[in-house]
Amino acid sequence: MRPSLVLASQSPRRRELLGILGVPFEVIPANIAEVPDRGESPEQFVVRAAREKGIEVAAGLSNSVVLSADTVVTIDGLILGKPEHEPHAIRMLQQLSGRQHVVYTAVCVIDQIHGEMHEGLEKTKVWFNSMTDVQIIDYVQREEVLDKAGAYAIQGFAGVYISKIEGNYGNVMGLPLPVVYDFLSRTKLYF
């Protein structure tokens, strides 16, 4: 019998993407404060957050493989987290309008069977077309954006404003499948 694969995330997008691999898994969300430390770069923060999520969930388990991830949207070196309210989402989208930004997703796999941890960081550049304030307000009212880093979902209506990406599409959704597949393959438990 294969050990339990646990996704340490409540993100419906991560559940959807992980489901593509065809490996049964259960969801146990982590509950950590996702706040960058002073002087911490976006890359350092996202790797630390993914690791802390995995460690927290793994602490309550045994003989499992825990997959955790964290995603940040960055522009000009600043992290755009999840907006607190609609006006905040509108300001974020105004920052992204007509510009290129970077999405980082860190992935951590804690393999309790072999006593190993695998960590990786994926980077994707995303180009937004210019959006008018009317288009931004329409988008914010059209889709639920308050649970999304950067106030947008590439797989939703925001996709009509994204002219180009450089890197992994799943990474922008919150789970780069090539990295996940590689790490799970290393466990030799699922593939």
Write a brief structural summary.
With 191 residues, this protein is α/β, with parallel strands linked by helices. Helices cover 32% and strands 27% of the residues.
Question: Describe it for me?
Answer:
This protein is of the alpha/beta class and 191 residues long. The chain has a single domain (4-187), classed as Maf protein. The protein has helices at residues 12-19, 42-58, 86-96, 133-142, 169-173, 177-187, and strands at residues 4-7, 26-27, 64-75, 78-80, 100-111, 116-128, 162-166. Strands 1, 2, 3, 4, 5, 6 and 7 form a seven-stranded mixed β-sheet that branches. A hairpin with a 4-residue loop joins strand 5 and strand 6 (116-128). Helix 3 (86-96) crosses helix 4. It is elongated.
Uncertain segments: none
Average pLDDT rating:
95
Name the beta content range.
25-35%
Estimate the global geometry from the Cα principal axes.
Answer: elongated
Integer-rounded radius of gyration = 17 Å
What structural class do the secondary elements suggest? alpha/beta
Number of strands: 7
